[in-house]
Amino acid sequence: MGKQHKFAGAHVEVVTTLTARAAAEAVVAQSSDSPTTGASVRFVRTDGNVLRFAVRAWKDRVESMTLHVTVREERGRTVVRSAIDTYTKKQQKIFIFIPIFPADMVAYPIYKAFMKRISEALTAQDPAAETRILER
Fold this sequence. Notes:
Elements: E1 11-16, H1 20-28, E2 40-47, E3 50-57, E4 62-74, E5 77-87, E6 89-90, E7 93-94, E8 98-99, E9 104-105, H2 108-125, E10 130-134
């Protein structure tokens, strides 16, 4: 993939008193459950305490990002943290080969909105939850 995009490490982290199961259900509820022509975050599967998602468009034909959310219990609290696994970039060029701007992470706006929805959903269920969204 070459050089990592500046947002490749972006994530949401929430520490809550909710059970791991309740937190996982709240996270999955923030994804789309039906294909759309526009891009959306789709729940793919669960691997133990890891929830797998994909950002897909055009009725699930185009995948522009894969990500996961880890939900684990730690010292009587539940920690929820997202991470990007794979992503596609788009580079604007002139004369077909001369880049004019840094490459864009195609699905980043959708992922950013998903992180915000996770934060808001968990905070709605546990107002004392500690939440942070890191873009880097």
